[in-house]
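dumping this here before i forget
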Amino acid sequence: MGVNTLRDIIADYEKINIKVVLANCKAAIRMMLQRCGFFDTVGHDHLYVTIHDALIHSISGDLLDVISQDMNKTVETELVNISQISKSTSEPTANARVIDETDV
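structure:
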């Protein structure tokens, strides 16, 4: 009954983008969770040896998300800038010279 409640809690919090993790569990608890099939539905990525490990993993994951989002924004900005440049250079200007076969 407690394992099902724990599964429900983890699922409920994941719906609002909060990851619940277990840390510093004794061997008997880990074995009981394994026997009950807890990790079959929840996954081992919710279990950490120490609280420190859980925090480091969480922080590094958050940083990767921020970096990834920032890189996506940069790429989108660069694509917009490139398309604007290509549009402006595709139209001849007063100083532009058209080269044809006779010039070669």
